[in-house]
Structure to design on (171 residues):
């Protein structure tokens, strides 16, 4: 599938899906999709996408549709948003490649990175954390759409989470 076909399909789905999104962000979303298609269209290996403040995870799930070998981790502090994300993933037939975590993004990232360090004792419970193998492999695409300024997020998205050559999309 060409990049333009992928983007057209994303645009078509916007008109059919009932999900929460800011309609003014549609152009941003389409441009991001074009950029990612151009950068990674020949990427055939399995890679990871991290969607911070994922809400219903529409953007992260769209990345999975463009890249059939990708896996998604979505984090949001709202159980309602995560429930919507799971429903959307199921409706788009990608739920087997998704992991959704309810929690404060900064806490989940900090604890997940610490727990993935082989030199640090494992926490008693890994519930609500990004699996250590994923943190060690790193993420090719980090998608974030925080409320307000994205500046505080830059300290959270550390180099140890982003794969070399990967991108951080702040919206």
């Amino acid at each position: 599938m060409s990049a333009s076909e992928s983007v057209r399909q994303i645009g078509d789905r916007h008109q059919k899906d009932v999900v929460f999104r800011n309609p003014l962000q549609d152009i941003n979303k389409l441009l991001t999709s074009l950029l990612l298609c151009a950068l990674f269209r020949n990427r055939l290996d399995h890679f990871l996408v991290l969607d911070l403040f994922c809400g219903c995870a529409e953007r992260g799930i769209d990345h999975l549709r463009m890249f059939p070998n990708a896996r998604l981790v979505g984090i949001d502090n709202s159980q309602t948003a995560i429930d919507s994300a799971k429903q959307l993933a199921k409706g788009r037939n990608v739920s087997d490649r998704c992991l959704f975590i309810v929690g404060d993004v900064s806490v989940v990232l900090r604890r997940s990175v610490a727990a993935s360090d082989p030199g640090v004792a494992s926490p008693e419970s890994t519930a609500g954390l990004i699996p250590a193998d994923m943190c060690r492999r790193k993420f090719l695409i980090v998608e974030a759409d925080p409320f307000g300024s994205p500046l505080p997020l830059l300290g959270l998205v550390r180099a140890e989470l982003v794969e070399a050559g990967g991108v951080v999309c702040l919206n």
In short: The mean pLDDT is 79. Residues 26-40 form the longest helix (15 residues). The chain has seven helices and five strands.
